[in-house]
Amino acid sequence: MHVLVTGGAGYVGSVVSAHLLAAGHRVTVLDDLSTGHADAVAPGAALVPGSIADRAATDVAFGRSTIDAVVHCAAKSLVAESVRAPELYWSNNVGGSLALLEAMRKHGVGRIVFSSTAATYGEPESVPILESAPARPTNPYGSSKLAVDQMLASYANAYGFSAVSLRYFNVAGALIGDGLSLGERHATETHLIPIALQVAAGTRPALSVFGTAYPTPDGTCVRDYIHIIDLADAHLRALEWTARSEQAHLVCNLGSGSGNSVLEVVEAVRRVTGSPTPTVAHPNRSGDPAVLIASNGLAQEVLGWAPTRDLEQMVLDAWNFAQQPARSA
Ligand SMILES: NC(=O)c1ccc[n+]([C@@H]2O[C@H](COP(=O)([O-])OP(=O)(O)OC[C@H]3O[C@@H](n4cnc5c(N)ncnc54)[C@H](O)[C@@H]3O)[C@@H](O)[C@H]2O)c1
User: Domain 2-172+225-254, what architecture?
Assistant: First the structure.
């Protein structure tokens, strides 16, 4: 199949592209390179530089040859920025996605897998979080993703789209090997594992731990981490699901189904790197729930997917990626 991967020059999109290519599929990437990198586009994929919101760019991306399905990763994804400048998120994530869906209609493509997020749930009433849990995002980033989930449901109903919203929890790790080296290169890094690895490498003085008195075993926040390669595999399975489903929208969590505290992640970083990795305690950040863990039963049941790589592997792969020669962030 020929897949259009939006955001394929970014962290998730680059690894998903590589995974699709390795499975024998064809990939075209549409990316405006706002946070992505042209040299992260998986070898063998064709890059169309441009925005999902730009009709001329989508005409080129869809017009090159028949596209069978879309994996839609392109988005802005910084929670704090979304609170400060929500218009960027409504415009890029929601307006851009609407333009993409209209381009799909124009070009007769009705299969899509979307990068949704655990941030659509907001503060959970109970964990593990089921897909049926109320979606009450606590910031414009989460709201913008939920709006696209709802947009997909309406396009499935009205236009027969077959769509999957994959609600990722915390994605980590890298894809290294077979001449590939793809991992996180965010200029503004907000994810715990790459930040902790920067401390281990000595490029940051200490790791800020926000909240040490949560009702968790060691007092720090617990999150659900998922390896980027397991995540990529779920996209292929979701694309296969869209081929056998019509006029349907599936919302599906992607997480390990278990949690690790901030201090457990720091311990894993210390074991993998051998560095003391100092930490500094700070007060809780508002809106940071104590525990976020996915129920992944639906992904197992419907997609036949299960995570196979643990936290140690995520930290090791991210460390090996970070140790490679300097590239632009
Ligand atoms: N990384 C995570 O832990 C995580 C967790 C939950 C959800 N997500 C979602 O997964 C997706 C990918 O995240 P990531 O970590 O790879 O981010 P990223 O910033 O590395 O990748 C996003 C890519 O989209 C591109 N892009 C942004 N706006 C665009 C537009 N209008 N047109 C074309 N390209 C555009 C950027 O240049 C970048 O290459 C995002 O939608 C994000 O919300 C990520």
Answer: 3-Layer(aba) Sandwich (3.40)
pTM of the model: 0.97
Of the candidates 11, 141, 168, 225, the residue annotated as catalytic is 141
Axis-axis angle for helices 311-322, 262-273 (nearest 10):
50
In the chain, where the domains are located: 2-172+225-254, 175-224+257-322
Q: What does the pLDDT look like over 223-250, one tens digit per residue?
A: 999 999 999 999 999 999 999 998 999 9
pLDDT digits (tens, 9 = 90+) for 22-59: 999 999 999 999 999 999 999 999 999 999 999 999 99
Q: What is the pLDDT of residues 245-289, one digit of tens each?
A: 989 999 999 999 999 999 999 999 999 999 999 999 999 988 889
Atom number of ligand 1 nearest to Cα 74: 24
- Choose which residue among 41, 77, 226 to substitute to test ligand 1 binding: the one with the highest number of ligand atoms within 8 A of its C-beta: 77
**How far does the centroid of ligand 1 lie from the alpha carbon of residue 73, in Å?**
5
Determine whether 141 is an active site residue: yes
Question: From CA 62, how far away is CA 64, in angstroms rounded?
Answer: 6
CA dihedral (55, 141, 217, 132) positive or negative: negative
Q: What letter would DSSP give residue 174?
A: -
Report, as an integer, the average pLDDT of 11-25. Answer: 98
> What six digits make up the tokens of 221?
């926040």
CA-closest candidate to residue 232, choices 119, 105, 71: 71
Question: How many angstroms is it from 279 CA to the middle of ligand 1?
Answer: 28
Residues 175-224+257-322: name the CATH superfamily: UDP-galactose 4-epimerase, domain 1 (3.90.25.10)
Give the number of the atom of ligand 1 that is nearest the alpha carbon of residue 52. Answer: 32
CA distance 249 to 245: 9
Q: Mean pLDDT throughout 83-88? A: 97
Residues lining ligand 1, Cβ inside 6 A: 6-7, 9-13, 30-36, 51-53, 73-75, 77, 92, 96, 115, 117, 168, 170-171, 186
pLDDT tens-digit profile of 104-147?
999 999 999 999 999 999 999 999 999 999 999 999 999 999 99
